[in-house]
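dumping this here before i forget
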Amino acid sequence: MKFQRKSVWAGAVSAIALLAAGSVAQADGHLNAQEKALAPLAKAEGGVTIIHPLFSDRTAQRMGEAFRARYNLGDDFEFNSLRKGTGATVAQVRQEIQAGKFTVDLILVSAPSFFAAAAERDAFEKLDSGYWADSVGLVEKAGQYSKYPYVVTPLAYTFQPVWNASCPGMENFNVTSYADTVAASLSGKTISSDITKSFTYTNTTLALAEAGAVNFNEFWPALKKTDPLVEFRTEPKMQMVISCQRPFDMWNLSGRVYQNVLKSEDLKDKLKIGSYSEGQVMLGNQVAVLKGAPHPNAGKLLIEFLLSKEGSDIFVEGEAVYSMRAGYEPPAAAAPYLLDLDKTKLLGMKDWVVQAAKDAKPARDLWQENFR
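structure:
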């Protein structure tokens, strides 16, 4: 959905901001100082557009409604959620930065190398966040990339093994380690994620290798022996699992299970989620406001919302992903689909940018030797 920009001369904007600031402060005493300052400016801008690969339409709708209500932005405030694949999300924003012409205000995606390069180019607005301190500890513990005050990491997800226990031969199946994913009994039942098309699959491979958790020189040939289908996106892979076409996927999202159970409750006892004792690679999703964006203050305010507990509750309940807030308790509906991060071995990378870029091509070449 597109919206029209509002052209208001500076004096009028200042007047609106001063009037709105009083009403927001009175109505929303729970807001931090940054939110109180940004809310009237965002209201005057009239809208915000976020581009990302993650939020479903349901999550985006609920997020827009909560965002308007929390900051008293009014029903006419345009909340636009543009969802594309990870690569397409990065490609569009990279093109807009190069052209100096922007249709989006902020980008949220798991792509540390992109954010590092763009920050080096001075492509992002400087943030002054009242909530980032609540997340930075877990971000660092999980070995995630951020570059405050320009780039923060409000959430993360991790690829987990998912299978359909109702499919033939899967009744007593279980996964606790990568060795379980290449068992001979899985012949004709597996999927190999195409790492050549995904930052997140590639980075998962690199993080596991860096930690010494998986030797891919041995693992990929072992997986090949199970005769897997090659697929890229998590949604079609999940449908293969549900239909029993390929009842096991070693790298999917617990959120995809959650969303399908919401659609069809009979899947609740069929779809199973495991984890890896070798460690779970956390894939932090970074977010930044583009310098030159049409609604920079609304973009900054949306980042504060994503870092807040209320904002976290929206995307965690909708996607069953992980908030990076310290001590965060997820909504009851999503909790059964999430790992306890305090009890999970979390893997990241020491260098998501230079070293990851150096290692990406050899890692992808090794995968292609087995599956192309």
